[in-house]
User: Which sequence fits this backbone?
């Protein structure tokens, strides 16, 4: 096959030289025409006279050039559906009933210190009602872990770790109700809520992303409300004692 190709290339180049020879002799006086025909002859004939090794090298270079261009335009692989779904999930993507009911459940926590701050006096009954509501909420968060672990296909298995840690917040909430002082009960509830949040976010198999964010913000509001009630007790009772002492001194 190769001798046949070489013979064809040789005969073709010889034929081209035979055909263009008289024309080149006739146009020898015209340098412009001579140079143009010479360039055309070099462009048409020289590739045929090159050895096969050089032609193979040029072919590989052209192939590498053509293959490198699409490689440089490669697009980044798309993100997996799980990663894109997880990145899109936020507090705004939470179901409306879960979002509104959770925000409504924070209302009693916020109203207790707000009412006492507005009235300018500390009410032990209001503080104790807040502690009772906090104990119910902590017990609900512990029982929710059982509801999350028991269904089939859940990422949380019904093992000792999940079910036993779901009982810890209710036990601490019950202990908070045993204190006569609502301030100590509020501190115990802060511990119970913090432990429950640590279990749900860092230790145990987590809830959906939107619910984890809802848990974080809800726990922050509950803890701040309980601490605000404890701080109001210290401040308002101190002011009341100072006012009583001043009244006794004036009388």
Assistant:
């Amino acid at each position: 096959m190769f001798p046949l190709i070489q013979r064809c290339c040789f005969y073709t180049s010889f034929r081209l030289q035979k055909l263009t020879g008289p024309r080149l002799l006739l146009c020898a006086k015209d340098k412009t025409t001579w140079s143009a025909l010479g360039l055309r002859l070099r462009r048409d004939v020289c590739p045929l006279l090159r050895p096969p090794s050089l032609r193979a090298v040029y072919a590989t270079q052209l192939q590498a050039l053509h293959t490198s261009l699409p490689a440089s335009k490669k697009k980044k692989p798309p993100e997996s559906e799980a990663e894109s779904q997880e990145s899109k999930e936020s507090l705004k993507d939470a179901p409306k009933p879960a979002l509104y009911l959770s925000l409504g459940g924070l209302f009693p926590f916020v109203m207790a210190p707000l009412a006492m701050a507005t009235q300018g006096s500390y009410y032990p009954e209001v503080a104790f009602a807040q502690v009772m509501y906090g104990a119910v909420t902590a017990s609900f968060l512990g029982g929710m872990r059982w509801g999350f672990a028991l269904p089939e296909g859940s990422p949380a298995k019904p093992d000792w770790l999940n079910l036993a840690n779901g009982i810890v917040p209710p036990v601490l909430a019950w202990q908070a109700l045993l204190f006569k002082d609502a301030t100590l009960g509020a501190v115990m509830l802060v511990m119970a809520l913090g432990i429950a949040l640590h279990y749900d976010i860092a230790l145990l198999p987590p809830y959906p992303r939107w619910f984890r964010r809802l848990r974080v913000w809800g726990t922050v509001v509950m803890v701040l409300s309980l601490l605000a009630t404890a701080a109001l007790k210290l401040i308002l009772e101190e002011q009341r004692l100072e006012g009583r002492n001043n009244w006794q001194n004036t009388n």
Notes: Residues 2-61 form one domain.
